[in-house]
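Bit of a strange request maybe. I'm writing a small parser for structure token strings and I need a real example to test against, not something I typed by hand. Could someone generate the tokens for this chain?
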Amino acid sequence: MDRPERLSVRPEVVDGVRVVRVRGEIDHDVTDVLGRALISEDGASPPRIVADLSGVTFMDSSGINLLLAAHQRASDAQGWLRIAGARAPVSRVLHLVGIDMLIPCRPTVEEALRG
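Reply from user aminoacidic:
Good idea to test on real output. This should exercise your parser:
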């Protein structure tokens, strides 16, 4: 699931929650990699997801759209998506488009796991 030159995506399960650790730049060229990580291996949307964006240095509108789609899938499955650790440039984008009003944003993965 890696594109070392642009993006590294590492999904894991922590206390029953799918934590997707993302490093690099999120743009239209890598959304397929991230999109696959936000769903479980069997293709079903996991009910609870934390997107760890602490290693993301850039995100364009395709990343926003991907997060919105993951949020909708999780909500439809009676679950949730939370964003953790977004750095200032990414956090600004999330705030400007209002994602932070729809998807809870937490400073750390640990806080996102707690709620």
